[in-house]
Amino acid sequence: MIEVDTLTKAFRRNGRDHVVLDAVSLRVDAGRIAGVIGPSGAGKSTLARCVNLLERPTSGRVVVGGQDLTALRDRELQAARRRIGTIFQAANLLSSRTVAGNVSLPLEIAGVPRAERRTRVAELVARVGLEDHARTHPAQLSGGQRQRVGIARALALRPDVLLSDEATSGLDPDTTRSILALLRGLRDDLGLTILLITHEMEVVRDVCDQVALLRDGRIVEQGDVGALVTDPDSALGRGLVPARPVAVAPGGGQSWRVTYTADDVDPAWIGRLEHELGTRVALLGASVEAVDGRPAGHVTVALDDPTIDLAERLRGRGLHAARLDETAADAPPAAVADLVAAPPAAGEDPGAVAATDRDPTGEPAGDPAEATDLPAAPTPTEERA
User: Fold this and answer.
1) What are the Cα distances from residue 139, in Å, to 94, 173, 318, 375?
2) What predicted TM-score, i.e. pTM, was given to this entire model?
3) What is the chain's mean pLDDT, rounded?
């Protein structure tokens, strides 16, 4: 379990306090995957570093597994951090070590006997699907494979909690899906509690049980993913299942956007509606998918008769209808507009959107290698030496 209670983090610059996190409260029950989403600079990575106390909060509490980390002394905190594994956007592997050697590193630092280390490393390498690459060096691995090594290393000390800070950013869609499937499997098999920091709506939709939207250092909306995507008034929910461009209503008919608000909607509701009304129901567009095991999304239809109140007609069927304002038909909610990703321009690197959160000095919020509690990867010069 993770509980963040009114956490505030401020950095001092030029004699002034700059608040990066402002009274943030968040609870993740054991065995759940929670996403924290927000634009670059919202404070996401700073929040992750506060959860494992690599950054001490200015005020507030961080409780992990019933233990208040903010109340611990340094030696106690060092022991408590072993229960928290961390995965970062850059795997930060030691290039001089093989896959097995990188996974073994935290076990070596913890003083685990060699025979036990070998057994544990073989188990972890197999768990992430890299048993055929145990003796391979990072330079010979793909980006997704390097992330798998990072995940195995984060699991080495058998943590109860896993922090994932933009772990899929910059990966191609297929690799992202495979990493998310791995995280979901680890949660199911090991009972891990996972806090997933991301700026990608698709990641939240595909793997998270709950999500919080962080903007300008504050949580502006949060809840279970399934509840949010079926709430027509939720900006975050509409961002998770965004409306798509639709066709123009034929003959000047009235357009309606229909949102799924329940998990027992009749799949044949459009045909039944047309029969009940005795008039044509034109389908202009639809985006419906399974989210958290339930149907979610939007259907846009047009009715020839503008006097029909479709909202009233669909009441009690798990569907919410609203007349469509054509000027805002395809615009995402303002609160999440910068998180509903547009396709990258020609020649643009899809991973380039993943800027690291920065503190008020303009520097990165933290060195990912430092956040592993492990030595940073040596530079080529250091390796040659």
Assistant:
1) 10, 21, 52, 19
2) 0.80
3) 84
